[in-house]
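Reopening: C-alpha cells for the iron/sulfur cluster complex, inputs below.
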Amino acid sequence: MLSVRNLSITFAMYEAGLRRRAITPIAGLDLDVRAGELLGVIGASGSGKSLLAHAVLGILPSNASAAGQIWFKGELLTPARQEALRGKEIALIPQSVGFLDPLMRVGRQVRRAAQLSGASSPVEAQRRIFERYGLRPQDARLYPFQLSGGMARRVLVSTAAVGQASLIIADEPTPGLHPEVVAETLRHMRELADEGRAVLLITHDVGAALTVADRIAVFYAGTTVEVAPVADFQGDGAALRHPYTRALWRALPQNEFISLPGAQPTPDDLPAGCLFAPRCPLATAECRAARPELRPVRGGWARCIHVES
Amino acid sequence: MLKAEQISFRYTHNGPWILRDVSLAIEAGEVVGLSAPSGRGKTTLGKILAGYLPPLTGRVSLNGAPLPKSGYCPVQLIFQHPELAINPRWRMKRVLEEAFVPSAELLRDLGIEAGWLNRWPHELSGGELQRFAVARALGPATRYVIADEMTTMLDANTQAHIWQVVLDHVRRRKLGLLVVSHDAALLGRLCTQIISLPHL
Ligand code: SF4
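Re-run output (same inputs, fresh job):
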C-alpha cells in the first residue's frame, strides 16, 4: 500500500543576519505498510515520527524539501497526487482537536470529510459513523472545545474513517489519556486495519503499539533502525535485531527499567558513521566509519553491521 | 510526614465533587503510588498537596505544620506537560535558575546539556523540558515530590532515565514521593505502597 524509500527531509533555516543554514532531521527513512496491516512507528521525540506523517500527506512546511521516494498503491506519490488523495485515499487522525476547526460544529466537520472522500450522502455517512463510534446524534451539534477527552478521540477517528481512505495515519492518537480511552482508541485502530485498510500508528508508547500492531518500525535520529514483527518483543528481547530496539524494550517498567546513557544526536550534530554508535554497547571502529544500510535480518530489517542475518 | 486529612474539593459552588474526604500520609523516604479510575481527582489532589490549590475542607500538613504560603515550597509538583509549567519567554537558563541554581552534578545526572541552557523552551522536546522540570523540583529545600503522570509522554528510555535520577535523590535525601500514574507496571516498579481514590 505504502512504501517509503530512503526519505530525507531538509529544512532551510534563516538565522539572525539572514545567514542560511540547512538541517536534515530525517535521513534514510524506510518503511512499508500493507493493506490490512497495522504498522506501529515508535521512537523518542525528535526521531522524525511526525515529520514522516507530514511528508506522506504532503503537508510539510514551505521551507522543507524532501528527497527519496514515497510509493502509494504502486505509484510514485508526487505533490499533485498527494493533494488529490489527501482526505480521500489517505487520511490523518491528528494528535488533538486543535486540528479541527474550532468554530464549526463537529457533525459538520465529519460531513465535510465524508463529502471530500466522495460519499454520496454525507449526512447519512456521518450518522452511521457516529453510531459506530458510540457518539449520540446530538453530539454532532457540539463544538470541538465542548468535547471530553474520550469524545474528542471518537470524533477524530470518525473524520478519518467516515470515507474510504485505504491508508490511515494516526499521529500520536493517545496523548496522555485515561487508560480506558487509550484502550478504546487502540481498538479502533485495529478495527480499521481489520477492514482492509493500511494503518500507520505513530507513537512514543512502545507498550501501546505492541498491543495492536502487526509489525513495529523503530526510528532513531531520523532514520529507520529496525522493522520487527511484534512477536519479537518478548522475554529479554533476544529476538530483536538492533541494539536501540533492545534498549527500548529493556527500559519498560515491566522489563528491566534500565535506561541507556546519552542522548539522541540532534540534526545539526550527527555523528559520521552509525547514528547510534555514540551510545551503542557493541560499537566498533567500523561502525563509526560509515552509515550502515538497512538490510533484511531474520524476517525483519535492521540498520546495523554487527547483527547476524 | 506529608499528611492530607479529610480533603474535599470542587471547582464551583454547586459543581460536582472532585474529591470527597480523602486522607493520606507519606513518610519521608517512602514511595507511594496513586491510581484512580478518573484522572481529574488525582491531578487536583496533587495540586492541593503541593499548595497550588487550597482544599475546600480538610487540611494538608508537613511535619504537623501547614505548608509555607510563600517562598520555595518543600512539596514540589511535577506535571505531565512541562511546557505548561515553564515561562515560554524565558531562556532555559533563567527557567532553570528561577528559584535556586541546581548543581552541575544534578544537571549531568539528568543529561541536561550545556547548550540547552541558551535555548528557548519551544526549541526543546518534551523529554528535554521535563528534565528541567525535574531539576527545578529537586532543590535543596525539597522534602516531598508529587509526580503527576511525569513520564507519560516520554519514550521508555527517557522515562527509565528520569526515574533513576529521582529515585536516587529520594533514597539519598530521604525524600517522600507520590507517584500519580495510570501505568500499573510503573507503579509496581517504583512504589512500596499503592493507594487508589474511590469512585465519586
Ligand atoms: S552498527 Fe555498530 S554502532 Fe551501530 S547499532 Fe550496530 S553495532 Fe551499534
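The mean pLDDT of chain A is 91. Chain A has nine helices and twelve strands. Marking as resolved unless the reporter disagrees.
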